[in-house]
TrEMBL record:
Stored InterPro entries: PPM-type-like_dom_sf
Annotated Basic residues bias: 23-34
Lineage of source species: Eukaryota, Viridiplantae, Streptophyta, Embryophyta, Tracheophyta
Name of the protein in its database record: PPM-type phosphatase domain-containing protein
Annotated spans, Disordered: 1-45
Origin: domain of life: Eukaryota
Bias (Low complexity): 9-22
Source species: Vitis vinifera
Gene3D superfamilies for this protein: PPM-type phosphatase domain (3.60.40.10)
Length: 171
């Protein structure tokens, strides 16, 4: 189980108990070259650890606190995250608790914890950029329309005077 709550002061909490306590490795477990736990995944995980404002282990900041405790039933299959300044916005915090189920539930929960915020942020940026482009396009179209309208109205204003001059010359 995990929890995410808001806090007003920062207070460091002990590191995650899921690190070395209570976790046993199989004696014959070896990484396979084509497995999901390749060096690419560990490099990606290292990069995620370095992102400022992103918490996923027990800890606290000025705005949030995370805490989980290993139970007696086996591997903790929950993963959690608090990401302050999410999407490069100082007023946005992403909070998530992901509940894993089944023999690989802990791996699925961690994968979702690591990939979902990145996908949301990327999708958000694309939509923001599309909205900006639409606004620029509308503003450009609007300004062109106002220029065209000004040209047409100036043209229409000059027509009566031209028509009067033609009528005078004809008479």
């Amino acid at each position: 189980m995990g929890s995410c709550l808001s806090a007003e002061s920062s207070r460091p909490l002990p590191s995650s108990p899921s690190g070395s306590l209570g976790v046993r490795r199989r004696k014959n477990s070896k990484r396979r070259l084509g497995s999901r736990t390749s060096s690419f995944d560990s490099r990606r995980e290292e990069q995620l650890h370095k992102i400022p404002g992103r918490m996923f282990l027990n800890g606290a900041s000025d705005f949030a606190s995370l805490f989980t405790q290993q139970g007696k039933k086996g591997t903790n299959q929950d993963a959690m995250i608090v990401w302050e300044n999410f999407g490069s916005r100082t007023d946005t915090v992403f909070c998530g608790v992901f509940d894993g189920h089944g023999p690989y539930g802990h791996m699925v929960a961690k994968r979702v914890r690591d990939s979902l915020p990145l996908k949301l942020s990327a999708h958000w940026e694309v939509n923001i950029n599309e909205d900006v482009l639409k606004e620029i396009s509308l503003n450009t179209t609007g300004s062109m329309n106002s220029e065209d309208t000004a040209f047409i109205s100036a043209d229409e204003e000059s027509r009566p005077s031209i028509d009067l001059e033609r009528n005078r010359k004809a008479a």
